[in-house]
Amino acid sequence: MATPRLHRRTQGEEEDASVLRLGPGMGIRSYQMNNSLTKDEHKEFNNAGCLLISEVKYLLENRDKDAPDTAYVCTISLDVPGIRCISIYLTVWSWNTNSVYNKTLEYVKQFAKFTTTDSASAVRETLRREPQLTQFETAQIANLCPADAEESKSIIPSLVKVDDDRLQALLDEIQTMRKFQS
């Protein structure tokens, strides 16, 4: 099996998280290095939305209930406000014995911040109302649930554009939703 060639970064590829330029490892190029699909076949992912870990947990758990031990290509869809409908295409071979699936499910169960789809949707809708936030920032805030504006700006540098008081109000609202989720 051929290994991917390393390439030197040019001046124009410098990473800068404060403007969401996250480097070559965060895009389609890194995925292509390990897969046989061409760049044209990946175009549908260029403008793909970001899912919350809680939403991924819901998708995986429901897929597991629908067909626990079958082998076929399946589509899982979740209607997320602002992103229309998200479809995930999976090729499933002995679904319950797939180690990648099991590790992914274990991960999302451990790190999901919201226990119900209603609470995850409410958080997404709350953050979506803030026009300055990108989908990436929305997902990061919901996945990490920082306690205050200072913490959120230190872990998500691109949030410097958002006023501290407005950001703190959003974070407080999310913490309240998290506390009272059923």
UniProtKB/TrEMBL annotation:
- Where is it located? Nucleus
Q: Please name the SMART domains in this protein's record.
A: RPOL4c (SM00657)
Keywords attached to this Swiss-Prot or TrEMBL record, sorted alphabetically, are: Nucleus
Q: Could you tell me which InterPro entries the record lists for this protein?
A: HRDC-like_sf, RNA_pol_Rpb4/RPC9_core, Rpb4-like, Rpb4/RPC9, Rpb4/RPC9_sf
Q: Pfam families from the entry?
A: RNA_pol_Rpb4 (PF03874)
CC terms in the record's Gene Ontology section: nucleus; RNA polymerase complex
What GO biological process terms are annotated to this protein in UniProt?
Answer: DNA-templated transcription initiation
Where is the RNA polymerase Rpb4/RPC9 core domain positioned along the sequence? 43-181
Task: Please provide, alphabetically and separated by semicolons, the GO molecular function terms listed in this UniProt record.
Answer: nucleotide binding
Superkingdom assignment: Eukaryota
Q: Family assignment?
A: Belongs to the eukaryotic RPB4 RNA polymerase subunit family.
What is the protein named? RNA polymerase Rpb4/RPC9 core domain-containing protein
